[in-house]
């Protein structure tokens, strides 16, 4: 599978979970320690770490260990393939609507010519 | 969980698979029968139908049975929650950068005043 497709699979799958989306929203405010990030979520730490790992694998989050604290930060450009895919879909759809417009115009012209 | 969150979960999870994204791109060109849609994909029909079902559950695709043919079409507005979520993330991130700008400006002013 193309690298681009694999990366879209990881990105979309990572975004398909409310805890992981909440982590991204929290990190949009700046880097946070794992403890700070986990605090609002009512789940066992290993489960929470599993969510962080998915975000890291998708390239959405990076973590760094400074002394005894693991700090997480956002990789904001990582969402770009998702934005590009959505734009492609819109272009495909609008291309179709344009072609439909052309077809209707052509039909109308043919009717006027008849 | 809020309805909006559930809908984002279903949408992002549905998009996290290359076969399902290819189905959406194909349907952007107009409605297709299941047979037409399945043709380029090297998989058993039940597996392919499973992918279609995920897209239907997320509200991205609707299917209609006309005689013996099941026809699928795109629900293009269904991607709107995904677009809105991405815009929210960008706003959060840019809000943070603006605050950082303000902070740097304030520091510079304080240094000039000193």
UniProtKB/TrEMBL annotation, chains A, B:
Matches recorded under InterPro entries: ArsR-like_HTH, HTH_ArsR_DNA-bd_dom, WH-like_DNA-bd_sf, WH_DNA-bd_sf
The HTH arsR-type domain, residue ranges: 1-94
Record CDD domains: HTH_ARSR (cd00090)
Protein origin, superkingdom: Bacteria
PANTHER family: SLL0088 PROTEIN, TRANSCRIPTIONAL REGULATORY PROTEIN
Protein name as annotated: ArsR/SmtB family transcription factor
């Amino acid at each position: 599978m193309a690298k681009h497709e694999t990366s879209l699979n990881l990105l979309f799958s990572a975004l398909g979970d409310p805890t992981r989306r909440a982590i991204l929203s929290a990190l949009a405010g700046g880097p946070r320690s794992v403890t700070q990030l986990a605090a609002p979520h009512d789940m066992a730490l290993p489960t929470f770490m599993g969510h962080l790992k998915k975000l890291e694998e998708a390239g959405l989050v990076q973590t760094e260990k400074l002394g005894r604290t693991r700090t997480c930060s956002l990789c904001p450009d990582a969402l770009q393939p998702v934005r590009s895919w959505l734009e492609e879909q819109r272009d495909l759809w609008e291309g179709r609507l344009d072609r439909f417009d052309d077809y209707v115009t052509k039909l109308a012209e043919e009717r006027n010519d008849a």
